[in-house]
Each structure stands twice: as structure tokens, then as C-alpha cells.
Amino acid sequence: TIYLDHQATTPADPAVVEAMSFAATHCFANPSSPHAAGIRAFREVERARGAVARLIGAARSEIYFTSGATEGNNLAIKGVVTPGEHRHVVTTAVEHKSVLDSCRSLRAAGHEVTVLPVDGEGRVSARQVAAALRPDTALVSVMLANNELSTIQPVAEIGAVTRAAGVPLHCDATQGVGSLPVDVRALGVDLLTFSGHKIYGPKGVGVLYVSNGLSDRAPLAPLLHGGGQERGLRAGTVNTAAVIGLGAAVGVLAAGREEESARLAGLRERFLATLAELVPYTLNSGTGPGFLPHAVNLSFEGTDAQQLLLEVTDIAVSTGSACNSSAQEPSHVLTAAGLAPERIRGSIRVGFGRFTTEEDAVRAARALAAGVSGPAARTAA
Ligand code: PLP
After folding, report:
1. In angstroms, how far is CA 22 from the centroid of its own chain?
2. Core-most of 181, 223, 359, 367, by most CB within 10 Å?
């Protein structure tokens, strides 16, 4: 199988597997234990925390390990918006469900939520955010890059707006951190989340960045209560091997991100050029600087993409978002960007990754084109 679904998850880098194996064998002690073995595990966890902090331009004391971006998003949103005088949240229509549903739960608890619409590329503007702010706005949450359309949001511009207004800004950077430079100060964010498994690290581990400025002004309320790990914000024994694996993933990423992003953009170009020779398609996402370099969303009109992917068994791509387990409904992201239902029905998302070769890109284009030309993929007239 040619795996081209790197937005859903990535395979672990060999360096990650090695680090986790080392950790499982030599750092099994509880990093909170005061004996030598515990101290050794603690040191390795702190080394990983340092690597994560350097990756995003944060201080080590601003990094909290979680079980993934879903938990990080829940913790950021529900942790900031506790009952009180601030009762309004601003987000966008194209966020991941873990953000949208966290906001929905706040709404059910009596808070107000403004969900900003997006343009045809899936983008919001800083001006929209500025217009939505109110005196009682407690949080703005905008993702760095979209998991379906690859749209990069103008987070630094939004950060300038929220800074000026004194409103905390949360950014779900899960899809962006693997291919874009991320600097929390340049972005002007107070909270930022991502997951290990989208950057060739392990599943079940993630990062929540909380600026020290925010912690001092308005400490987050934890979701889990217990042993007080992660400075009281995330109780539960630290997942040492996964955290150490994440540290290794961050090391590999930091060493080669720029060249790798350029290589992946080249593979995407090759894939699209090969496909264009064989079958007509429409691009739903852009391929310019406002979009992630390694991914593309496109539609074969008149084709049922779900059916197509069942037939083209030797490549792994997806329709819409795999993070959404019951993907029967049309994608909320493509719908928000104004795509017609027929175009959404024929849409697929292709994401190239670290182990994809040029031959894979060409073979995948040929396999998809053959599938589209096959009878069963076509919509019955
Ligand atoms: N946010 C975005 C933008 C995502 O693409 C995903 C993907 O799953 C998540 C959050 C959730 O990450 P996880 O499943 O690792 O919690």
C-alpha cells in the first residue's frame, strides 16, 4: 500500500522507535519518584520538554504533556473559560471537532460562542476576529492549518489583534507544526496544542503550550484531578516512553523541516501533473504559500469518492477527515468553504510524507486515475 494519508497520522520515525525502546527498558521508573531510577526518567522527560520548547520558541516551563491534541484542545478551551464574568468565545467554522465540540459544551453550560465563517479557501481574517471581540470575550481559538483544506490561517495577524485587546489566543497547531516554522511569540498565541503522531512520533501523547504570562494572570483549570503531575495541570503518571519518543520526533523534525517541506511540495507537483495527464479533476485546496506544502484536496466530479477509495485498494488516502470517525456526513470544512455537495462527494485528501518517494507519487496518481475511469466509481446516471 502507498500511504498518502499523513494528515490522519504518520508512521513513527525509526529514531522515535529506538528512543521509545530505550525508554521502555531504561526509563521505566516513575519520573516523580525520588530515587535514582526515577530521577533518570525525570531527566529524560525534561530533555524532551526542552526539545519541544525549542521547537516552538517557548520556555520549558510553558510546556505541558497531554495525551494528544484532543485533550490539549479540551484543556485549553475548558480550562480558560471557567464560570465567571467572561463568557464569550470566538472560533471558526473549520476547526477540528475537538475544538468545535469543546466550544459547544461551553455553550451548553451557558457561555456564548461566535463561530466565524470562512472564505472559499477556508480562511478567516484578523479583521473578522477583531469585529467579533466583545468586552466579555474570554478566548479566541483559531487553528494554524486545516486538516482537510490545508489552509494556513493568519494566526500572527490574529495574535496582534487579541494581544491588543488583552484576550487569550489558542491555536491548534496539530497540522501545521510538522511543516511550518512555529514560534509562539511571533504568532502571539497564549495557548498552542499539537499531537505526537502527526509528526512521526507516538500516538497518545501531545503538547499544550501555556504562556507563563497567561498562567500568572489566569491559571487554567485542570480537566483531571489527581497526583498533581505537570505542575497540577494534568494529573496522571507521565507517559514516559511516549514523551521521550515525542522528544526524538521533534529532534528529527527540527533538523530537516525546511528541506523536507520543499521536497514534499515537489512530490505533490509531480502527483498533480501525472494525474492531469490522465483524468480531469478540480483542486479544492491551493498549492501556494497560504497552504500546507505536503497536502492537496481535490475532486473528481461525478465520482463517489468513498466508493472510489474502496476500489483503489493499493493506496491509502481519505475522503475528508479521518479524525472524524463517523464520516458519513459531508465534511463541515468543505461545506463551510462553500463547496457544492456534488464536489464534496467527489473529494479526496492526499498527504505526502517523510517516507513517500517520487515513484509512490506517480503510481498513486495512476492508480487513482484508473479508479476514476472504472465504472463503479461513477455516479449512476
Ligand atoms: N486538531 C487537528 C487539526 C487535527 O487534525 C487532529 C487530528 O486528529 C486533532 C486536532 C486531534 O488529534 P488527536 O487525535 O491526536 O487528539
Report:
1. 27
2. 367
Model pTM score: 0.96
Which ligand 1 atom sits nearest the alpha carbon of residue 98? 10
CATH of the domain at 21: 3.40.640.10
In a domain, 378, yes or no: no
* ipTM at complex level: 0.99
Q: Into how many domains does the chain fold?
A: 2
* Whether residues 168 and 316 fall in one domain: no
CATH classification of the domain holding 339:
3.90.1150.10
Angle between helices 97-108 and 69-80 (to 10 degrees): 30
Quote the CA–CA distance of 356 and 272 in Å, as a whole number.
15
CA of 322 to the centre of ligand 1 (A): 9
Q: Say yes or no: 337 and 275 in one domain.
A: yes
Q: Shortest CA distance to 176 belongs to which of 192, 158, 157, 162?
A: 192
Q: Do 309 and 180 belong together in one domain?
A: no
Domain boundary among 197, 224, 251: 251
Shared-domain flag, residues 308 and 234: no
φ, ψ for residue 92 (rounded to 5)?
A: -125, 160
**Domain match, 157 and 215 both:** yes
Average pLDDT, 10 consecutive residues per value, the chain (381 residues):
97 98 94 96 97 98 98 96 81 98 93 97 98 96 98 98 97 98 98 98 98 89 93 95 98 96 98 97 96 97 92 90 58 96 95 98 97 70 40
Q: Among 181, 216, 251, where does a domain finish? A: 251
Concerning whether 323 is annotated as a catalytic residue, the answer is yes
Letter for the amino acid at 26? Answer: H
Ligand 1 shell residues, CB under 6 Å: 68-70, 96, 98, 143, 147, 172, 174-175, 195, 197, 206, 323
Give me the helix-helix angle, 36-56 and 14-26, nearest 10°: 150
**Which residue segment(s) compose the domain that 129 sits in?**
14-251
Q: Reduce the DSSP state of residue 132 to 3 states and report it.
A: helix
Is residue 67 domain-resident?
yes
Alpha helix ranges (H) inside the chain: 14-26, 36-56, 69-80, 97-108, 126-132, 155-165, 184-187, 212-217, 240-278, 305-311, 332-336, 341-345, 358-373
Distance 239 CA to ligand 1 centre (A): 19
